[in-house]
Amino acid sequence: MSIRRFKLFPALAGLLLMAGLGACTLAAAGDNTVLPDPAVDAAPAQGDQVAVLAGGCFWGLQAVFEHVKGVKKVWAGYSGGAANTAEYDRVSDGDTGHAESVKIVYDPSKVSYGQLLKVYFSVATDPTQLNRQGPDVGTQYRSAIFYGNDDQKRVATAYIAQLTAAHAYGDPIVTQVVPLKGFYVAESYHQDYAKRHPDEPYIVFNDAPKVTHLKQQFPTLYQPDRELVSVTLH
User: Fold this and answer.
1) 57 is catalytic
2) Residue 141 contacts residue 57 (beta carbons within 8 Å)
3) DSSP bridge partners of 137
4) Helix or strand or coil: residue 234?
5) With CB atoms 3.0 to 4.6 Å apart as the test, which of 46, 158, 196, 217 could cross-link to 40 if both were Cys?
6) CATH, residue 190
7) What are the counts of helices (DSSP H) followed by strands (DSSP E) for the chain?
8) Catalytic: which of 54, 57, 119, 163?
9) Amino acid 22: pLDDT
């Protein structure tokens, strides 16, 4: 049983964290090292666009990207596996091919795909951790960019190459760049979890610091909390 299974039990999660089994999950650049802007970015597009990213628990990913200007909506969900296994208890077994992911709907006139990737690599995930993020272990917590078109693939692969050439991290980047075959929205109790449970130990130790680093490193992109809206997948 992975530590991830204990998230829904705050008292036990707190004990595990205080015992040293958990840690604030920040990217290697989360020590205030500033990553370069992407040298390659997506071509201008009309209308809302979609990005799907994975990198650890979807609670933290959703919390980060909901605070990025130009982002209109973020759903927590599952990508990489089949539709009939896209539910929490099955995904938690780590053998479905799914990764906990977020679907981000954004306005490309306000934030570009490359800028979203810079946020992702800077504060949302540690791209050097293989099949885990901090206290969460398993392939369902892998770092992955699920591209929806060739333009997204081009930007993602170019940025990883750019970060590698710049020696942005002490270890190799293991983030996958793979085609998006489907996104399946997670159960309602997972949506906006960090916002609705700000005092839960897991959130305090693992997810709240990511939002803090976003505000520090990206002051012009950061937006404060917005009102919760009903979750309807478009």
Assistant:
1) yes
2) yes
3) 132
4) coil
5) 158
6) 3.30.1060.10
7) 8, 8
8) 57
9) 37
User: Is it the case that residue 25 has pLDDT exceeding 80?
Assistant: no
Distance in Å from the first CA to the final CA of the chain = 34
Q: Rg for the chain (alpha carbons), in Å? A: 16
Contacts of 21 (CB under 8 A, 6+ apart): 3, 135
If one counts the domains in the chain, the total is 1
Distance (Å) of CA 88 to CA 19, 99, 105, 165, 197: 26, 11, 22, 37, 18
Sheet holding 176-179, edge to edge: 176-179, 143-147, 49-55, 99-106, 71-79, 183-185
Per-residue pLDDT tens for 124-180?
Answer: 999 999 999 989 999 999 999 999 999 999 999 999 999 999 999 999 999 999 999
Q: Which two tokens stand for residue 64?
A: 């980060």
In a domain, 232, yes or no: no
C-alpha 103/C-alpha 93 separation (Å) is 22
Q: Tell me which residue has tokens 């917590």.
A: 141
**Domain encompassing residue 200:** 3-217
The CA-based dihedral angle spanning residues 47, 210, 156, 218, taken in that order and rounded to the nearest 10 degrees: 60
Residue 231 resides in a domain:
no
Q: Is 59 within a domain?
A: yes
Question: Higher confidence at residue 20 or residue 80?
Answer: 80
Does the residue 142 lie in any domain? yes
Closest CA to 100 of 61, 147, 49, 127: 61
- Res 225: pLDDT: 80
* Residue 226 tokens, joined: 């917005």
